[in-house]
Design a protein that fits this description.
It is a single chain. By secondary structure, the protein is an alpha/beta fold. The protein is built from 12 helices and 11 strands. Strands 3-2-1-4-5-6 form a 6-stranded parallel β-sheet, sandwiched between helices. Strands 9-10-11 form a 3-stranded antiparallel β-sheet. Helix 7 packs across helix 12. 52% of the residues are buried. The protein binds 1,4-dihydronicotinamide adenine dinucleotide and oxaloacetate ion (OAA). The site of oxaloacetate ion has 12 residues, from helix 10. This is Malate dehydrogenase. Its EC number is 1.1.1.37. It comes from Ananas comosus. Belongs to the LDH/MDH superfamily. MDH type 1 family.
Length: 355
């Protein structure tokens, strides 16, 4: 890849607007390409050789905020690490291929991104992945508690509505839990809501912001189109908003069906994961006003975990932002999602306590 192409990809990542968030300050963008100007930051990807892991490894290698990129998987890591390591960008890449190397993979990490686990096939719900992925997440989080207890964890593995509560319980048991360092990655819901809204509203997609709240499965995904900006250039009926909401909620299933048994979203998820990890790094580096949606420990509803806009800073999640004004349709959606989200949270907590 030509350096100019690398610069433009990285610039696009740095410049894009968050889920209700701000663009990077111009000074930060200009400084980011001088490798010695931004602090050393280590990012670890667990599940790095998978469908999400590979393109995510590529995107993190292109991120000039990353100085060390640690790629861990139980299969296929050496090839991915060798391949990505040849790219002439700042991050030094190391691959780790077995459980006895997990400690070294994690040590010193600032951000740990977890896309390890099995994806859906057509006809499955995300909850159908629980039996396999809960155990994977539990063992990876046990290692995080031991080797990098201060890292910000970006949980991608599904069902996110349950894997985040599992991680919280594992960290509590280990005595390392810090709620500001545990984030369920719901950025793909925001990415989809922005894309679908831009198409219907006839506004430039790069300018669009749409908060998505709740959780990350079916009706628990609640896009707040009443707060979408910029205002629509087309007149959007209630039926249009209902259709946009449903398409956002079913976005994952749309990809699972199109892939017809070959997995779920990987490329758009890698993009979304790279956007969220980049926001965490910017926050750690002290860039102000970094706001993204994420599924975090929360008190903004009666549920202990909930996705909403959060402000990221030097300590991870520094503020969980409120829901803002909701339309009647969104208020109804909020009440409807609560029982399912509550039971997914309880399932995760029960698993972690009993295993
Ligand atoms: N949060 C979100 O928005 C999204 C979440 N996902 C979820 O991400 C997960 C991964 O999806 P894909 O990358 O498509 O799956 P994949 O099967 O292509 O890759 C998963 C990788 O995890 C690895 N793995 C399994 N157990 C491991 C362990 N104990 N330690 C380290 N690595 C391990 C596998 O070897 C494999 O390389 C799935 O659970 C999927 O449902 C997918 C899309 C969006
Ligand atoms: O749908 C799935 O299984 C994967 C996922 O979470 C998404 O694409 O949003």
């Amino acid at each position: 890849m030509r350096p100019s192409m690398l610069r433009s990809i990285s610039s696009a990542l740095l410049r894009r607007r968050g889920g209700g968030g701000a663009a990077a300050a111009p000074g930060v963008l200009a400084r980011s390409f001088a490798s010695d100007a931004s602090p050393a930051r280590k990012v670890a990807i667990l599940g790095a050789a998978g469908g999400i892991g590979q393109p995510l490894a590529l995107l993190m290698k292109l991120n000039p905020l990353v100085s060390s990129l640690s790629l861990y998987d139980i299969a296929g890591t050496p090839g991915v690490a060798a391949d990505v390591s040849h790219i002439n960008s700042r991050a030094e890449v190391k691959g780790f291929a077995s459980e006895d190397q997990l400690g070294e993979a994690l040590e010193g990490s600032d951000v740990v991104v977890i896309p390890a686990g099995v994806p859906r096939k057509p006809g499955m719900t995300r909850d159908d992945l629980f039996n396999i992925n809960a155990g994977i997440v539990k063992s990876l989080c046990t290692a995080i508690a031991k080797y990098c207890p201060n890292a910000i964890v970006n949980m991608i593995s599904n069902p996110v509505n349950s894997t985040v509560p599992i991680a919280a319980e594992v960290f509590k048991k280990a005595g390392t839990y810090d709620e500001s360092k545990l984030c369920g990655v719901t950025t793909l819901d925001v990415v989809r809501a922005k894309t679908f809204y831009a198409g219907k509203a006839m506004v430039p997609v790069a300018d669009v912001n749409v908060p998505v709240v709740g959780g990350h499965a079916g009706i628990t995904i609640l896009p707040l189109f009443s707060q979408a900006t910029p205002a629509s250039n087309a007149s959007l009926s209630h039926e249009d908003i209902k259709a946009l909401t449903k398409r956002t909620q079913d976005g994952g299933t749309e990809v699972v069906e199109a892939k017809a048994g070959k997995g779920s979203a990987t490329l758009s998820m890698a993009y979304a994961g790279a956007v969220f990890a980049d926001a965490c790094l910017k926050g750690l580096n002290g860039v102000p006003d970094i706001v993204e949606c994420s599924y975090v420990q929360s008190t903004i509803t009666e549920l202990p975990f909930f996705a909403s806009k959060v402000r990221l800073g030097k300590n991870g999640v520094e503020e969980v932002l409120g829901l803002g004004p909701l339309s009647d349709y969104e208020k109804e959606g909020l009440e409807n999602l609560k029982p399912e989200l509550k039971s997914s949270i309880e399932k995760g907590i029960k698993f972690a306590k009993e295993n």
